[in-house]
């Protein structure tokens, strides 16, 4: 079966570069990644044999919703199988439900036509209610860190080694030869006004410095007001370093501003970022001990020495996956007031932090990467094409499957544990700290492509089911649903949570609720399943039948009763697990707000 995979860029809202999306989802097999003359390895798209269709919807300088919708419409008319959108609105629509915006309705139409729609969950994490993928007919993708890092080391003259981030080559001598260490603000030209006006410690203005002091030196540049408000940049540091012939630069955190997030960027000039204030203090303490000043505080002798080690060699250690700090969090919500709704968002987790992919050397929106054919970037827009590629593999293996069947296969086979056997962790508001994540961070869990090809059971929903879902929403005007979708409200669900999703989300469980689900055996043999429940705190869960035998292509109705045993003031999480006699394991996350007994 030949698949056509649609990808296009939407910088009007968020996030990425079209070549990166193409490369990650369906890039060629084994492409050498070379940046600044260094070979980093080979890159392969998730589904390298998939066909690609690209629709240019907007430009770096301008973009309109009408052009985006026209591109989606044309793609569906052209018969694409998978639509990947690393995009989303900046905020919920005004005057309508999130599910009924034009963008969501066009995605529903694509789903109705048999197109699998996958969308970035957003980069506004770790705040709750920050997802921008709202609808159950589009798969919202969260991003996670992987176990690959590019560690670099600053080696001080006293032997102290301080780890940092760089993705650059070492200083000459590979760290064995050390060079004069200079704090940028100490190298400003005498009688200059730069320290007061231009924050010379940020190394943005070459004319501020005495070239005889900084040449062939390791210069310490500091995160300050310019970086905090976005006026200063690493490009500015690199420009200064190249022009004045620094041996290397060290970009350090500022205790006045706290730790910062450092992402590895290929530096042609040796450099390292030290993003924590504790490490900065150690560097500056050494510097001051070795530096001799006159009575006015001016340096008369620079005694400190430093070197930078190789920072371009990948290391594969530590915990993974970890939900990325920037990845938007649930719960999903229905309106601009962010009232929660009975849909799990995000849906699934995929790698999205420090991902290599193809890049246009023009690099209009990111000058620091100008001239490169590859880039290492982060965002849920990096995670989304991973899921698009996995969907292409599933669709090729199971060509008759509908979009909801593909989504179900990924969801029910995802893992919620990391490579150390612990529950998946997440980055929080405090930098460089972790906490145990939950479905509002990772959805059903980290995608497992090989298991998703053969999930055993699937949960399926079609266009009419989504219309019933919309018509079952609280206080909904059915005429608005008909006007927006063209669909007619027929048989309604008792509750919106009865939509046949591979998860159960209840935003207000009052007493008891019966939730209905239907599964289909997509395996080739009859199988017997036994159910088990990890109940959310404050909730008792009963599933009937507790076991069942199901033949190929047969369906089985499940009645799931949830009772509040302890009212809480927050969501609580659990899961239902259906274990098959042929080793299929089907998992369904539970996200419940137990309100009243």
Automatic annotation (TrEMBL):
<dbReference type="GO" id="GO:0006508">
    <property type="term" value="P:proteolysis"/>
</dbReference>
<dbReference type="InterPro" id="IPR045051">
    <property type="entry name" value="SBT"/>
</dbReference>
<dbReference type="InterPro" id="IPR041469">
    <property type="entry name" value="Subtilisin-like_FN3"/>
</dbReference>
<keyword id="KW-0732">Signal</keyword>
<comment type="similarity">
    <text>Belongs to the peptidase S8 family.</text>
</comment>
<dbReference type="InterPro" id="IPR036852">
    <property type="entry name" value="Peptidase_S8/S53_dom_sf"/>
</dbReference>
<keyword id="KW-0378">Hydrolase</keyword>
<dbReference type="Pfam" id="PF17766">
    <property type="entry name" value="fn3_6"/>
</dbReference>
<dbReference type="InterPro" id="IPR023828">
    <property type="entry name" value="Peptidase_S8_Ser-AS"/>
</dbReference>
<keyword id="KW-0645">Protease</keyword>
<dbReference type="GO" id="GO:0004252">
    <property type="term" value="F:serine-type endopeptidase activity"/>
</dbReference>
<keyword id="KW-0720">Serine protease</keyword>
<dbReference type="InterPro" id="IPR000209">
    <property type="entry name" value="Peptidase_S8/S53_dom"/>
</dbReference>
<dbReference type="Pfam" id="PF00082">
    <property type="entry name" value="Peptidase_S8"/>
</dbReference>
<protein>
    <submittedName>
        <fullName>Subtilisin-like protease SBT2.4 isoform X3</fullName>
    </submittedName>
</protein>
């Amino acid at each position: 079966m030949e698949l056509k995979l649609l990808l296009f860029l939407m910088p009007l809202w968020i996030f990425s570069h079209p070549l990166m999306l193409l490369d990650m989802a369906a890039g060629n097999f084994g492409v050498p990644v070379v940046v600044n003359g260094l070979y980093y390895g080979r890159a392969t798209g998730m589904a390298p044999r998939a066909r690609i269709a690209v629709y240019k919807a907007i430009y770096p300088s301008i973009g309109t919703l009408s052009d985006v919708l026209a591109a989606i419409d044309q793609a569906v008319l052209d018969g694409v199988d998978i639509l990947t959108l690393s995009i989303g609105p900046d905020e919920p629509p005004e005057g309508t439900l999130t599910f009924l915006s034009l963008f969501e309705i066009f995605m529903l139409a694509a789903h109705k036509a048999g197109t699998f729609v996958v969308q970035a969950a957003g980069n506004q994490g770790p705040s709750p209610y920050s997802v921008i993928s709202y609808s159950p007919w589009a798969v919202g993708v969260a991003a996670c860190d992987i176990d690959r890092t590019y560690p670099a080391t600053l080696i001080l003259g006293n032997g102290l080694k301080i780890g940092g981030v760089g993705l650059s080559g070492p200083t000459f001598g590979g760290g064995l030869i050390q060079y004069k260490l200079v704090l940028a603000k100490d190298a400003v030209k005498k009688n200059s006004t730069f320290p007061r006006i231009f924050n010379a410690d940020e190394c943005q203005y070459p004319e501020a410095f005495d070239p005889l002091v900084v040449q062939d030196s390791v210069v310490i540049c500091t995160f300050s007001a310019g970086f905090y408000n976005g006026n200063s940049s690493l490009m500015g540091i690199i420009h200064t370093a190249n022009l004045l012939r620094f041996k290397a630069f060290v970009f350090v955190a500022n205790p006045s501003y706290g730790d910062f997030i450092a992402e590895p960027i290929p530096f042609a000039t040796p450099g390292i970022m030290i993003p924590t204030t504790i490490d900065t203090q150690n560097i500056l303490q050494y510097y001051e001990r070795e530096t001799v000043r006159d009575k006015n505080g001016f340096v008369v002798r620079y005694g400190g020495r430093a070197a930078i080690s190789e920072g371009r060699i990948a290391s594969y250690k530590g915990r993974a996956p970890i939900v990325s700090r920037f990845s938007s969090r649930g719960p999903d919500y229905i309106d601009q007031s962010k009232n929660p709704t009975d849909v799990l968002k995000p849906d699934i987790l995929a790698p999205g932090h420090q991902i290599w992919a193809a890049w246009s050397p023009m690099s209009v929106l990111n000058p620091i990467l100008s001239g490169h054919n590859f880039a290492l970037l982060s965002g849920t827009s990096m995670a989304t094409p991973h899921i698009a590629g996995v969907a292409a593999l599933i669709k090729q293996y199971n060509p008759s499957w509908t979009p909801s069947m593909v989504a179900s296969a990924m969801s029910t086979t995802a893992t919620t544990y990391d490579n150390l056997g612990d529950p998946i962790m997440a980055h929080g508001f405090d930098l460089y700290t972790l906490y145990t994540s939950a479905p509002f961070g990772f959805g059903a869990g980290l995608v497992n492509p090989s298991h998703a090809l053969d999930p055993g059971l699937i949960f399926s929903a079609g266009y009419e089911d989504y219309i019933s879902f919309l018509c079952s929403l609280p206080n909904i005007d059915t005429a608005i649903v008909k006007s927006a979708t063209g669909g007619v409200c027929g048989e309604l669900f008792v509750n919106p949570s009865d939509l046949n999703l591979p998860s159960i989300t209840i935003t207000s469980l009052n007493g008891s609720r019966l939730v209905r689900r239907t599964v289909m055996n997509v395996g080739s043999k009859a199988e017997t399943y036994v159910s088990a429940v990890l109940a959310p705190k404050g909730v008792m869960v009963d599933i009937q039948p507790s076991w069942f035998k199901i033949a190929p292509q047969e369906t089985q109705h499940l009645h799931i009763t949830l009772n509040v045993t302890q009212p809480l003031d927050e969501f609580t999480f659990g899961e239902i697990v259906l274990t098959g006699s042929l080793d299929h394991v089907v998992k369904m996350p539970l996200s419940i707000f137990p309100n009243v007994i």
